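Section 4.2 – Deliverable D4.2 (structural model, holo form)

The reporting period included a commitment to supply a predicted holo structure for the target in complex with KE4. Inputs used:
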Amino acid sequence: MTMQHDNSERLRVRAEKLFPGGVNSPVRAFRAVGGQPPFVARAEGAYLFDADGNRFIDYFGSWGPMILGHAFPAVVEAVARAARNSASYGASTAAEGDLAERVQAVYPGMERMRFVSSGTEATMSAIRLARAATGRKRIVKFEGCYHGHADGLLVKAGSGVATLGIPGSAGVPEEIAGLTLALPYNDLPAVESAFARFPGEIAGVILEPVVGNAGCIPPGEGYLAGLRRVTAERGALLIVDEVMTGFRLAPGGALELYGIDADLVTLGKILGGGLPCGAFGGKRGYMEMLAPLGPVYQAGTLSGNPLAMAAGCATLDELAARRETIYPQLEATARAVAEGVAEAAQAAGISVTLNRVGSMWTWFFTNGPVTNYEQAAASNTARFGQFHRAMLERGVWLPPSQFEAMFLSVAHGQAEVGATISAARAAFGEMLG
Ligand code: KE4
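Output (structure tokens):
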């Protein structure tokens, strides 16, 4: 029985007259996987419900924030309660300190922080701070890592290693892209040669500690510690972008999981419990260069928004209260579904490489290891698109790109694992049929 999508289709036709591609963020348009995106009407726990009443197991969870599952009662109540006191003041509130104290409890290295309204603002501001703190202009990022859409971060590798970045998007001037070096991930010698080529010029190195934006790519043994050593030796700041991994891989994210000390950390997604919220923070000496104390300007109308603070506090409180059970549960459920589907692929004779860290993972439709973006990019994206469409029709909504990570929530359980593996077996059969 194929699903009905009449209402989503009607809504898509209208949306395409209002928004480029009918969407407010490109990946939602399903261009990487084909087919038309259902329009979501509501969500609860592990499930999305579309405008035609179809139900889907959700494996992208708003791209990470919904770790407790959708419409978690304590979060809903906290937001409703805050909203009754108005949605925004543009003035200081107790709620900002309440959330910051909860962040500091798991990110003790964030001696000072500042809330913003997105991950993009967090990374953009952290880079400005790194440049001010060092008096240097160049930034190192890694291919396959995404840190939001600030000009200097929409950069791809030039020809060869340690060459100047080139614009990764129209509208990014090469003068700006040229200040960013895009290096291969998991390649420490490439970083060392960049510092050798540009001595005293690199302000900071920014990375996803576990890549999610090329699909899931874990750091190799010693890689993060190596980056910490090289940046400290060379006087550059290590900026760890935990927008996706923060509060997910452990209460204190990848910094806790891998025992890494960052100069600056960026956060988002789970931090706001699904409301617009990001943060950047770190060593007091750097952060106090920010206005109004110091010369680095950074601001935001809705920074520290009371509703986002309320959702974030309710989310972090739940994660803290149940930390002894939630993280082992996420690990066990993710392992069961990720490995179950990979085994189904293998049984069907379809090559899949599974990369997973905790409750974020990717099935790469490729042979062999995926340790960097070049290897990820060799995946059979057409086959991933077939898989995505076949799973969607069976009520399983995967992130619509081979180069995104899957996420699950505390609300996903054995029923969802079983249904997902069954759907995958049928999908692989259809793909080979
Ligand atoms: P936002 O500006 O989208 O809140 O955050 C940017 C960002 C920064 N750092 C990391 C590690 C991120 O993953 C992101 C945003 N992630 C994407 C999903 N891969 C957001 C989804 C979208 O663009 O629609």
